[in-house]
Write a structure and sequence with these properties.
Metallo-beta-lactamase, Chain A, four-stranded parallel sheet, 7 helices, binds fe (ii) ion
Length: 281
């Protein structure tokens, strides 16, 4: 995001991408100094690149919600993130996507700037509004960019491999996930950018996408509930969700025999091999 007075990087991917981010910035040239690194939620695949940039350029201001700050300050979580970061880098390198190895600091970090829900960061002519959408993760934050009326969703609407192919990701709270989607829809976005890929422009298209994301989440939950009612083994349900997830992006990187890090819960697959992000609470 570029403003008259300052620029900001919103989300940093994995550490292997940090040098590419810097090269891209250098090639494009910035209208004003890079000042902020913004973490939209504390999951390894969104913050490790930021941690590396902050480590290399300590003068940059790391900003995020208070909840993200609490996550990034935990030593055990960052140690787990560093392990995931290596796995992601290996996956990206083996797939011929990015040649760089992981180089992630594995020490916890204090946010320089903790933002409240509704807080605004002014870059000079461009404002970034922080909107709490705690459905994917407890700290998931949407960044509303004005005057473009663009919304950077992070993982609020799941992982989309295409406009109409969306994997729901209600890791933390199904209800908050749907509330978050409804809240974003009520703000009538003109543009939407997901944390991983897919950009959507035009109010009707954004509305359609948000409706579809909610619909997919409802369908996934119904399918899980049906299996529970049918007394299907929990492990089988987890396997089914895992199969579905493993078709998408970085989830392909997770080995199927990954040891669980916590109790299995098909309605909140935050732990287990499916995902190793923020522990559920
Ligand atoms: Fe995430």
């Amino acid at each position: 995001m570029t403003g008259r007075n300052a620029c900001a990087i919103v989300e940093g991917g994995v550490s292997a991408l940090a040098s590419k981010i810097l090269a891209d910035i250098e090639a494009s040239g910035l209208p004003s100094p890079l000042k902020y690194l913004i973490a939209a939620h504390g999951h390894a695949d969104h913050v490790m690149g930021l941690l590396k940039l902050k480590h290399n350029f300590p003068q940059l201001i790391m900003a995020g919600s208070k909840e993200t700050g609490r996550i990034l300050a935990k030593e055990k979580i960052i140690r787990n993130f560093a392990q995931d970061d290596v796995m992601y880098a290996d996956y990206l390198r083996e797939g011929g996507h990015f040649p760089d190895p992981a180089d992630s600091p594995d020490e916890p970090l204090e946010l320089d700037l903790a933002m409240e829900d509704g807080g605004i960061l002014d870059l000079g002519g461009v404002q970034l509004k922080f909107i709490a959408c705690p459905g994917h993760a407890p700290d998931n934050t949407v960044i509303q960019v004005e005057p473009d009326h663009a919304f950077l969703l992070s993982d609020s609407a799941g992982y989309a491999s295409a406009y109409n192919d969306i994997l729901p990701l209600f890791f933390y709270s199904y209800r908050s996930y749907l509330e978050g989607l409804a809240r974003i829809k009520s703000l009538a976005p003109g543009h939407i950018a997901l944390g991983h890929n897919v950009l959507i422009s035009g109010e009707p298209e954004c509305r359609r996408f948000l409706d579809l994301a909610a619909d997919q989440a409802i369908k996934m939950r119904e399918s899980i509930l049906r299996r529970i009612q049918d007394k299907a083994p929990v492990e089988e349900t987890e396997e089914q969700i895992a199969d579905q997830m493993s078709r998408y992006g970085l989830f392909k990187a997770f080995p199927r025999n990954r040891p669980n890090r916590g109790p299995a819960n098909p309605l909140n697959p935050t732990t287990g091999w499916v995902w190793s992000g923020t522990p559920s609470r």
